[in-house]
Amino acid sequence: MLDSILLDEEGYLLNLDDWTPELAQQLATQEDITLTEQHWEIIHLLRDFYHEFEVSPAMRPLTKAVSKKLGAEKGRSIYLMTLFPGSPPKLAAKIAGLPKPANCL
Amino acid sequence: MQHTLLVTGSPYQSKACHSALCFARAALTAQPDSIKGVFFYEDAVLIGNDLAQPPRDEINLKQAWQTLASEFNLPLYLCIAAAVRRGVINETESKRYELNHHSLSSGFQLEGLGTFVELMNSTQKIIQFR
Amino acid sequence: MKNTLIHLTSSPYSSIACKEGLDLALVLATFEQKVDLCLSDAALSLLTKHQQPEPEQGKNLHKLLDGLEFYDIENVFIESSSLAPDPATQWPGITSLDSAAWSELFSSYQQVFRF
Prior knowledge:
Chain B: Keywords: Cytoplasm, Transferase. Chain B: Belongs to the DsrE/TusD family. Chain B: This is tRNA 2-thiouridine synthesizing protein D. The complex is a heterotrimer of chains A (105), B (130) and C (115). Chain A has 105 residues and is an all-alpha fold. Chain A is 51% helix and 0% strand. Chain A has helices at 21-30, 37-53, 59-70, 77-83, 88-95. The longest helix of chain A has 17 residues, at 37-53. Chain A starts with 20 loop residues before the first helix and ends in a 10-residue tail after the last helix. Helices cover 38% and strands 18% of the residues of chain B. Chain B is built from five helices and five strands. Chain B has a five-stranded parallel beta sheet, with helices on both faces. Chain C is of the alpha/beta class and 115 residues long. Chain C has a five-stranded parallel beta sheet with strand order 4-3-2-1-5. In chain C, strand 2, helix 2 and strand 3 (76-79) form a beta-alpha-beta unit. Chain C is globular and about 40 Å long. The two termini of chain C are 22 Å apart. Chains in contact: A-B, A-C, B-C. The interface between A and B is small, with 5 and 7 residues.
């Protein structure tokens, strides 16, 4: 199982380089999420977003980025909420091994 | 007319916290509700460090702010991200980061920048001290 | 709603002022506030392409420029006389203003914050 030393007090990775797809599975399991193809495309998009711009997006930029890359249907917050319930930007960032988005609504 | 003050200059490298204090005191004395809140950002959050001790023969700026705040019921907000980065930590954050200490002085509160946006939209004018 | 101009003047690598200024811009945008950016002085170096800072030097804030569109931050202004000799080395998304328009810029917002 997950070594708790790898994670901060809220469950985000301490060392972003530790992330692997297998680790994402474990992080998701801890959040009671079974990763599907739909989850993975958001996770990859988030990781690309972070590497491109060096920032974890809040909800609005996330939905815009999803709309642009995966189509308007998936860029709706309702869709993202079904995949990552509660706060999609926070939960998806956690599973994608990225820093918690700042000042997230 | 209600103002919001945004203070960004370090209490040590600038006079931002001093000037803002003088302005706030003058404004509140003239009209007690003229300032809705003071938001400290960047190095100005160091004003809320309870552990900092000025030499006895210099002004205790933190105390001066606390006095003003309690006299006029003026909220003093420190940006939480800027404060935590600089070790100005309240009890909640201390627990969150599993630390043994907290360092936030009384009379100050840690808030997100969202609080600043709210202040901004509910007052007529914002004045930055840097 | 108010419109805000964030004016960056500090070097992106000498302090975290640029970082904290940009953080504020992103938060304002996240809260659906209208926000524009303008750059002058040492902050202009933010625009130079192909920056590769080491962690000790700070985050690569240049990368964020391309992400601004996702926050609906549409305008990054500079004064045209401050443009680098070779525009090809600069981030292409800037709007450059002549001196008169640059001076006027600061009175067209309800508030200007400097970092």
